[in-house]
Amino acid sequence: MKRMYSLIAVILLLVVSTSAQAQEKWSLQKCIDYAVQNNIQIKQQALNSDYYNNQLGQARHNRLPNLNAGFQNNMSFGRTIGPDNTYLDINSNSTSGSLSTNVTLWNGFTLSNSIKVADMDLRASLEDMQKAKDDMMLNIAASYLEILFAGELVTVAEDLLKITQLQIDRTGKLVEAGSLAKGSLLEIEAQYAREELSVVNAQNRLQLAYLGLYQLLELPSTESFTIEKPILPEIGANMSLLNSMDVFKNAVQLKPAVKSAEFKLESARNQLLIAKGNLLPSLTFGGNYYNFYNNKYADFSGNKIIFSDQLKSNVRYGFGLSLNIPIFNRYQAQTGVSNSQIQLENFELQLQNTKNLLRKDIEQAYTNALAAFKRYVANQKTVISSKEAFRYTEEKFNVGMINSVEYNQSKNNLSSAQSDLLQAKYEYIFRTKILDFYNGLTIEL
């Protein structure tokens, strides 16, 4: 059984090693850049911004005059009134054309406020796109650190396995010499099998961590890569954290979620002005041109009137002002004002809620970072004492002063302490990176 587990572990290590050598190495920044360029949600946000950009362009174009042309051709058959006011049985063909234009001179500042609404909506959509990028950056950083953490757990498990292998060799010699009972060797071998399983579990966790990163990047596992192992900052007892309220004061000025909510609130204010503008009169200037031709038109002498003469004779054009005064429209305008006021109050609450959520996230990150730092300092002491205890236990076990159960318990305590130390380390690093990110700094490892 021992040999079988050893063979499995060797095969897994060879597969992982060979695969790692053949794969490309990606840094954290490369992962982030790839996600920003290829993530579907970010692409959708970009399309959403393009839509609002078109809406802004249309709102500006609405201030321009319009111009429309119309053409009509009619064919008539049968009796019709001739030039001398008598009925004739003739077939005729007539063509008419027109041009019309109008421009809004004033409509309660609705046009200008519509431009402001479209501009604020565009700005909000751009901030939403940036927020999607920020969320992706944090998720990738968390996944990246999870891979580093899982990799170190593999190293810890493999180191413990090596120690157990050395102890098996030593115990086997003692058993052969008659210094120890064979049961001690069997217990150590059983411990070796359990630790081999721990190595396999740690390697599986590492592979799952990689899979999580691949899925964040929306890469198939067939296009896998390995990450670069950066030099992580040393954590010392004299380290201090940024105050959560100081971070919040900066974040509320910088973070796209807050900016988006502010732009949406400003858009709602202008929508209320548009609704109030609908209660006011509107003034429009318009002009039109019309002409007509009939192939049967003739003068009083019966001579057919040519095309150019008809165009000169049939031309008609005009200009005018149109004033529209709303008097009663089933309270539609008043209801629009009331609904816009409700929307405005709703966006005010959304802005406040966004700020509150941001403050809670920062406070949570600060509290978690502080707790992780305290756990790290405490676990450092635990690891040091556990190493010393295991060294002393190993010495006593080698001379037969204690049994394998006590030996394995001491080694398990060391393994648990090392795992807790690693977990606190990576938790602290991730939470401090979140605080730095909220403070306007780029995520770097």
Report on this model:
The protein is an alpha+beta fold. The protein has a single domain, classed as Outer membrane efflux proteins (OEP), CATH 1.20.1600. The longest helix has 68 residues, at 110-177. Strands 2-5-7-8 form a four-stranded antiparallel β-sheet. It has a two-stranded parallel sheet with strand order 1-6. The chain has a two-stranded antiparallel ribbon with strand order 3-4. Helix 1 (2-22) runs parallel beside helix 5 (182-216), helix 7 packs antiparallel against helix 9 (332-398) and helix 9 (332-398) runs antiparallel to helix 10. The chain is elongated and about 145 Å long. The protein is 67% helix and 13% strand.
What is the percent of helical residues? Answer: 55-70%
Q: Which radius of gyration do the C-alpha atoms yield?
A: 40 Å
Largest sheet: 4 strands, antiparallel
Number of helices: 10
Rounded mean pLDDT is 86
Gap between N and C termini: 42 Å
CATH superfamily name? Outer membrane efflux proteins (OEP)
Q: What name does the CATH topology carry? A: Outer membrane efflux proteins (OEP)
Share in β-strands: 5-15%
In one word, what is the shape?
Answer: elongated
Order of helices and strands: HEHHEEEEHHEHHEHEHH
Secondary structural class: alpha+beta
| Whole-number count of domains | 1
User: Going across the major beta sheet, what is the strand order?
Assistant: 2-5-7-8
Q: Do you know the CATH architecture? A: Up-down Bundle
Note poorly predicted spans: 1-21
User: Given this structure, which CATH class is correct?
Assistant: Mainly Alpha
Number of distinct beta strands: 8
